[in-house]
Amino acid sequence: MCGCLDAARGTRDRVHSLLEAVLSVGRELDLEQALRSIVEAAAALVDAEYAALGVIGPDGRRLSAFHTVGVSEEQIAVIGPYPEGHGILGELIRHPEPLRLAKISEHPASYGFPAHHPPMNTFLGVPIRVRDQVFGNLYLTEKRGGAQFDEEDVSVTLTLAVAAGVAIDNARLYEESRLRERWLRANAEITHSLMSGSDRTEVLALIAERAGEITGSALAAVALPLQNTGSLAVEIAVGMDAEVHRGLVLPMDKSLMGLAFSGAAPVTSADVARDARISLEPPRFGGLGPAVAVPIGTGDAGPRGVVLLARKAGQPVFSARETEPLKAFAGQAAIAMELAERRQDAEEVAVLKDRDRIARDLHDLAIQRLFATGMTLQSTGRFIEHEEAAERVARAVDDLDETIKIIRSTIFGLRTRDGVGEAGLRARAVRVVGEAAPVLGFAPGVRMEGLLDTDVPREIADHVVPVLSEALTNIARHAHADRADVLLATDGREVRLSVTDNGVGITAGGRRSGLRNMAERAEQLGGRLELEKPETGGTRLVWRVPARKV
User: Fold this and answer.
1) Long-range CB contacts (within 8 A, 24+) of 233-242
2) Residue 115 belongs to what H/E stretch?
3) Ramachandran sector of residue 426 (left: φ over 0; alpha: ψ -120 to 50; beta: rest)
4) Pairwise CA distance, residues 66 & 45, whole Å
5) Which residues lie closer than 8 Å to 363 by C-beta, 6 or more apart?
6) What is the pLDDT of residues 429-438, one digit of tens each?
7) Mean local confidence (pLDDT), 232-261
């Protein structure tokens, strides 16, 4: 009789514990905390020394996250990386049914344990389903007291797994609603920035910052196309190693941004630092892992640019649920660029109208009055008897005639739009590098900084382009290099061109005609040419001149 009462009390206590566990798990709205509560509740219910919850990744074959109980942080650090789903853990992924073992090592799928791993024998595993989809698995090992997991343990754990599925679903929904709210706030902030008249660069920087914050990205960047070059230039970069990315010129076919731009669709990478589709040069993704590139605008005119987001290595990959709001958010960037372009067009039209008005006033008022004054002086000169006075009046008439010519030339200049149809320095430089690539046998890395198309006048740009071409030609002929990097920058006061290679360096007694030409160009403009030897070997050529002709 006493045995029956003890059994009844034990069953009652276990049911009570199960209800407490279900309620505890159901109260959590934060997904990470909910997963932690599930593991802890499972370990307590079946009296297991160790417990873990493995989250199955998007590919359905590996674990993307692993939450443990019973193993200290120090032990985890010694053991090494979390398991990916081999051995017994993978058995549950392939066959999502309850699995109970008296000794793990005796199962055919046993994969063994890494060094320093605690010994484990007894095992109980059950799947967790969320809306009929397997979310992950509960793994329980080493029932205390040396006992075996029994059918009642399986039943209790399965019940907890059902409650866990509901809790995970609720936490996901809550997380999605909070995420949606953050995107809406960010969209409102960007719209306000647009309406307040912020320029394109400021708005794009704000878009990159907010996208990076919301998605938990370590790096956020925005690249725009360089006209008629088939390349993208990274205009904005914020976050981890941003200075390495800012100003880079990227090819369409060997960069994540280029693939997204040319395909007009998002492109994801599980590990951007080791993605075979992406060129390794220049090195720029150290410490980064999952990444996504989303085109800015995909209408009839095609993308206007690309947003890149990258997380630190080891963090979750970008899911489809994250990419969808990113596409809408990138649409905000397209609107920003559209408004900025329209605002710039309106300002240019206003300037042109003002120029026309000034030209018209000069022609209709100033020139006519000067001409009339000249005619009056010319006719008056006939009545002047004093020879010297007559000569002075004649010179004054000639001066008025020259003044009229100068004003007419000014009017013509006002009515001529500067630079129409001409390529900017950035595009010209990229074309030179592209033309040099077949001769070099590799594509040089290119970085551009500053307002090269607006702060560098045409006469300076006309020297920069042949100097860059000559520098790359010298590398192809003499350096025996397999890598070169080009930096073209201006701060508004100085233009600096730096070309670095990893070749044999400048040999003594070699021909110097090309270097002499580059040095003479620099001297003509009030600048100088410098040759340096980097610590890694090769040559660095630095050509710098004032941004305004002296």
Assistant:
1) 233/426, 233/448, 235/201, 235/204, 235/305, 236/201, 236/204, 236/205, 236/208, 237/208, 238/205, 238/208, 238/209, 238/212, 239/212, 240/287, 240/288, 240/310, 240/312, 241/284, 241/286, 241/287
2) none
3) alpha
4) 20
5) 408, 411
6) 988 988 888 8
7) 89
CA atoms of 387 and 479, how far apart (whole Å): 75
- 529 within 8 A of 543, measured Cβ to Cβ: yes
Distance spanning both ends of the chain, measured CA to CA: 109
Residue at 367: amino acid letter:
I
For residue 90, what are its two tokens?
A: 């993978």
Burial of 241: CB neighbours in 10 Å, binned 0-12, 13-18, 19+: middle
Mean pLDDT of the residues in the chain = 80
Element (H, E) at 82: none
Share of the chain above pLDDT 90, in %: 14
Residue 476 and residue 439 in contact, taking contact as beta carbons nearer than 8 Å: yes
CA dihedral 398, 400, 406, 410 (to 10 degrees): -160
Q: Which two tokens stand for residue 292?
A: 């996504």
d(CA 73, CA 88): 23
Q: Are 202 and 335 in contact (CB under 8 A)?
A: no
Whether residue 360 contacts residue 415, with contact meaning beta carbons closer than 8 Å, is answered with no
Quote the distance between the C-alpha of residue 449 and its chain's center: 16
Q: Are β-strands 99-101 and 123-130 bridged in parallel, bridged antiparallel, or unpaired?
A: antiparallel
Q: Do residues 485 and 282 touch, judged by C-beta distance below 8 A?
A: yes
Q: State the helix-helix crossing angle for 368-380 and 387-414, rounded to 10 degrees.
A: 170
Chain position carrying tokens 């993208």? 232
Using the 8-state DSSP alphabet, how is residue 322 labeled?
H
* Position 115 pLDDT exceeds 90: no
Instruction: Return the SS3 of 319.
Output: coil
Closest CA to 88 of 70, 102, 107: 107
Global confidence as pTM: 0.63
Closest by Cα among 392, 449, 401, 458 to 425: 458
